[in-house]
């Protein structure tokens, strides 16, 4: 199973590093696992120029690691996000990486049920595992974050995202990965 891991872990954050290690243990060290530390990557911010839609479809005008991330994301089976919760949202580096995934969508719209969304550039839907961490995460932030992930899942074509909230390194034991059959 091709898996993309986007992590905001930095060297000083022991909780994030423990969670990242648990994720690596669960996924194994096969060649089908690609991991990016987006907090340390030099990803430029999306400027909303729509070059990735209009001038060079599928490619951002910025030539940085997001091109590699998007290339792998376009055909992976699972995406894993390891993010610190910030006011009920992703960390800024994970949010930036998600913003920069715009080339994986097309500028056209489709109606899905009673909701409108952009057409995916690639047919493959992905499993999604989101590990959100922080100290003493309030219930209100958990609910806001869960709604945000649900909406991102709809628009980014993630299938049934699983969210794990972790406040202590021992919470890493709660994380499980269910692989899709077939």
Can you tag this structure with a few keywords?
single chain; 182 residues; alpha/beta; 5-stranded parallel β-sheet; two-stranded antiparallel sheet; 5 helices; 7 strands; 29% helix
What does this structure look like?
- With 182 residues, the chain is α/β, with parallel strands linked by helices.
- Helix content is 29%, strand content 26%.
- The protein has five helices and seven strands; from the N terminus they run E-H-E-H-H-E-H-E-E-E-H-E.
- The chain has a five-stranded parallel sheet, sandwiched between helices. The protein has a two-stranded antiparallel sheet with strand order 4-5.
- The longest helix is centred in the C-terminal third of the chain and has 18 residues, at 139-156.
- The N and C termini lie close together (10 Å).
């Amino acid at each position: 199973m091709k898996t993309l891991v986007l992590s905001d872990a930095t060297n000083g954050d022991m909780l994030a590093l423990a969670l990242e290690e648990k994720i690596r243990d669960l996924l194994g060290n096969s060649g089908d696992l690609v991991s990016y530390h987006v907090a340390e990557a030099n990803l430029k911010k999306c400027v909303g120029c729509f070059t990735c839609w209009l001038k060079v479809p599928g490619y951002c005008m910025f030539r940085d690691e997001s091109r590699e991330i998007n290339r792998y994301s376009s055909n992976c089976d699972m995406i894993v996000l390891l993010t610190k919760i910030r006011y009920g949202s992703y960390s800024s580096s994970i949010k930036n990486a998600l913003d920069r995934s715009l080339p994986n969508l097309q500028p056209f719209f489709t109606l899905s049920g009673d909701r409108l969304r952009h057409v995916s550039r690639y047919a493959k839907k992905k499993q999604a595992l989101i590990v959100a961490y922080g100290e003493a995460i309030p219930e209100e932030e958990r609910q806001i974050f869960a709604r945000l992930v649900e909406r991102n899942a709809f628009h980014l074509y993630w299938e049934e995202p699983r969210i794990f909230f972790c406040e202590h390194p021992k919470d890493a034991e709660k994380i499980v990965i269910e692989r899709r059959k077939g």
